[in-house]
Each structure stands twice: as C-alpha cells, then as structure tokens.
Specification:
1 helix; 4 strands; 43% strand
Length: 53
C-alpha cells in the first residue's frame, strides 16, 4: 500500500490509494496497521470541492 499510494500534503498522516476505476481509498498507516478513513468515487470528491466536469 505504501508504494502504491500518495501522501496528502493538506492532511498529515493520510494517504490516498487510487484504484483502476474512479474509486479513491483514504487511509492512515500506524506501524503495520492500516486504518481506512474513507472510500469515495472521484466524482463525489470533485462535487464536494465544488468542481463540475
């Protein structure tokens, strides 16, 4: 997961994993424990930010 995800600069300790589809998984890692914080579709993330496609 660490190698295939990106750190969010705006939220310390949170990473995002982008799947092959439009699903994004937000999570944190504490030693060897992965905690899933949220799962969202790209469209929902953009809509929350006020961005329309």
């Amino acid at each position: 997961m660490r190698e295939n995800s990106h750190v969010l600069d705006t939220v310390p300790g949170v990473r995002v994993f982008m799947t092959n589809t439009d699903i994004r998984i937000f999570f944190s890692i504490d030693r060897e424990t992965i905690t899933v914080l949220d799962v969202a579709k790209r469209h929902a993330i953009l809509a929350t930010a006020g961005i329309t496609l």
